[in-house]
Inverse folding.
C-alpha cells in the first residue's frame, strides 16, 4: 500500500519560508542599528562638544573616525564573508559594533570616544558588507528576492528618520551617552536571534586571499590626510607637520595602488576604473557625500549653537526631510526607468545644491519654517533621488559578474568622500570664523559665518559633481534584468539619456 504525504511537505515548506522571513527581520534589525547610528549622532554633536571639550574643528572626528573605518573596511568585510562565511562575519560585526557602542557611551575623554567610534565603524562595515549577501542566500526565487529587497531598503530608508528623532529624545531626556548605549540591547537581541535564524555558513572559499595590506594602506592614507586637513589652520598649511602628514598620506596611497596592481586578489581591482561610467560614478559619489555629510554636521550645529534649539527640537526639524528622503528613494527606480540615469542624477544633485545655498544664507535670528525647512526638504528630495542613479551608473560600465564589486566600490567612495569632505569643510568653517572674530565680529555672527562658508563650499562640491555627470555619464544606461532576475550586461539598456 502506497501513500502520499503532501501535507508534511507543504508544512515543512511553510515553516522554511517563515524562517527565511524571520531571518530577514534579523538582518534588517542589524543593519538598521548601523543606519540609526549614522544620523542619531549628528543631533547630539553640540552636547558631545560641550561635555568633552571638543572645539569646532576637532568635533569632526566624532563623525570622521566612524566614516573612515567604515569606508576603509567595507570591501574587506565583503571579502572576509566570502572566505570565512557571511553568518560568522555578521556575528563578529554585531559583537564589535555593540562592544564599541558601550565604549562610546561610557567615554569620558575625546580620545576614548574617537577610538571607540573607529571600532564602531569597523563593526558596521562587517555587518553592512555581508547583510546583503545573506539576503541573497536566503531568497533565491526572483519574486521573493525582490520583495525582500524592497523591505530591506524601506527599513534602511526609515532608519534615517528614526535616528534623528531618537537622537533628540535620548539626548534631551537622558544624555548624549544614551545614543550609543541604546545599541546594546538591540545588539544582544540581534546576536541571539542570528544564532537561531541565520543560515549556517557554507564551506569557505578555496584558495582565496585576503588583501589586508590594501585595506590598511588606503585607510591609513585617508586618516593621515584628514588629520592634516583638520589641523591645517592651527599648524599652518605650509608647516612641516601639515606637509609631512600629507606627504605620508601620498606615500601610503601610492603603496595602495602598487599593492592593488600586483596582488592576485585585490581589494579594489584597478581595471574596474577603465570604465568611464565607473570612474565618473565614483567621482560624483565622493562629491555628493562631501556636501551631504557637511550639511548634516553643520546644520545640526547651526540649529543648536545659533538658534538655541534643544536636541529633541533638532530631531523634529530633520524629520520631514528624512521622510521625503525615504519616499524619494523608493520612487528613484521608477524615475530612472522613465528618464534614464543622467537627468534624475542631475536633478537630485541640483536640489541638494539649492538646499546648501539656502543654508548659506541662514541668519543668526532665523526662523525654522522660513530659513531651515525649505533647505532640508530640498536636500532630502535631492539625496533620495540621486543616490540610486550613481549606483546604476557604476554598474552600467561593468560585466554582470562585477555588479556587486562596482556597488561596493561606490559605497566605499561615498563614505571616504564624506570623511575627507567633512574635514575640508570643518577647516573652511574654522578659518572663516577665526577671520571674522579677528575683524571684531560678534561671536555668534562669526560662528554662523563659518557655517555659511562650509555650506557654500559644500554646494560647490555638489555642482562640480553635476558637471562631472554631464561630461561623462551622458551615455550611461540601465541594465535590464534577465529571466532569473539578475541584471544583464550594459548592452541591454532599459533607458538611455538623451
Amino acid at each position: 500500500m502506497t501513500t502520499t504525504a503532501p501535507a508534511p511537505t507543504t508544512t515543512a515548506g511553510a515553516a522554511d519560508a517563515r524562517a527565511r522571513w524571520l531571518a530577514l527581520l534579523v538582518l534588517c534589525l542589524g543593519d538598521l542599528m548601523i543606519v540609526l547610528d549614522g544620523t542619531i549622532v549628528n543631533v547630539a554633536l553640540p552636547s558631545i562638544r560641550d561635555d568633552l571639550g571638543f572645539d569646532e574643528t576637532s568635533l569632526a572626528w566624532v563623525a570622521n573616525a566612524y566614516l573612515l573605518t567604515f569606508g576603509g573596511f567595507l570591501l574587506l568585510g565583503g571579502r572576509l564573508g566570502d572566505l570565512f562565511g557571511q553568518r560568522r562575519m555578521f556575528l563578529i560585526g554585531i559583537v564589535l559594533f555593540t562592544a564599541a557602542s558601550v565604549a562610546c557611551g561610557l567615554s569620558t575623554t575625546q580620545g576614548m570616544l574617537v577610538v571607540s567610534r573607529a571600532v564602531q565603524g569597523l563593526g558596521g562595515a562587517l555587518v553592512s558588507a555581508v547583510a546583503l549577501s545573506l539576503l541573497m542566500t536566503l531568497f533565491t526565487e526572483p519574486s521573493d528576492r525582490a520583495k525582500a529587497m524592497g523591505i530591506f531598503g524601506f527599513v534602511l530608508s526609515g532608519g534615517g528618520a528614526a535616528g534623528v528623532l531618537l537622537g533628540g529624545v535620548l539626548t534631551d531626556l537622558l544624555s548624549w551617552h544614551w545614543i550609543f548605549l541604546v545599541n546594546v540591547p538591540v545588539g544582544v537581541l540581534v546576536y541571539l536571534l542570528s544564532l537561531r535564524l541565520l543560515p549556517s555558513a557554507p564551506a569557505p572559499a578555496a584558495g582565496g586571499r585576503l588583501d589586508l595590506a590594501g585595506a590598511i594602506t588606503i585607510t591609513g592614507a585617508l586618516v593621515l590626510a584628514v588629520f592634516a586637513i583638520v589641523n591645517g589652520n592651527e599648524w599652518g598649511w605650509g608647516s612641516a607637520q601639515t606637509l609631512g602628514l600629507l606627504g605620508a598620506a601620498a606615500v601610503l596611497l601610492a603603496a595602495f595602488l602598487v599593492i592593488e596592481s600586483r596582488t592576485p586578489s585585490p581589494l579594489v581591482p584597478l581595471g574596474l576604473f577603465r570604465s568611464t561610467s565607473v570612474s565618473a560614478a565614483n567621482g560624483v559619489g565622493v562629491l555628493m557625500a562631501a556636501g551631504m555629510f557637511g550639511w548634516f554636521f553643520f546644520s545640526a550645529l547651526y540649529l543648536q549653537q545659533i538658534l538655541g534649539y534643544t536636541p529633541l527640537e533638532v530631531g523634529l526639524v530633520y524629520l520631514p526631510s528624512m521622510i521625503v528622503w525615504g519616499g524619494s528613494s523608493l520612487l528613484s527606480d521608477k524615475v530612472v526607468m522613465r528618464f534614464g540615469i543622467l537627468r534624475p542624477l542631475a536633478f537630485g544633485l541640483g536640489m541638494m545644491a539649492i538646499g546648501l545655498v539656502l543654508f548659506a544664507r541662514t541668519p543668526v535670528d532665523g526662523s525654522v519654517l522660513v530659513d531651515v525647512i525649505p533647505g532640508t526638504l530640498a536636500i532630502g528630495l535631492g539625496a533620495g533621488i540621486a543616490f540610486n542613479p550613481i549606483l546604476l551608473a557604476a554598474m552600467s560600465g561593468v560585466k554582470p559578474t562585477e555588479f556587486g564589486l562596482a556597488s561596493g566600490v561606490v559605497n566605499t567612495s561615498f563614505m571616504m568622500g564624506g570623511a575627507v569632505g567633512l574635514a575640508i569643510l570643518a577647516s573652511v568653517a574654522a578659518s572663516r570664523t577665526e577671520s571674522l572674530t579677528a575683524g571684531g565680529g560678534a561671536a555668534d555672527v562669526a560662528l554662523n559665518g563659518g557655517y555659511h562658508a562650509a555650506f557654500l563650499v559644500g554646494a560647490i562640491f555638489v555642482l562640480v559633481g553635476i558637471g562631472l555627470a554631464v561630461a561623462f555619464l551622458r551615455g550611461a544606461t540601465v541594465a535590464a534584468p534577465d529571466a532569473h532576475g539578475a541584471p544583464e550586461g550594459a548592452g541591454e539598456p532599459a533607458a538611455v539619456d538623451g
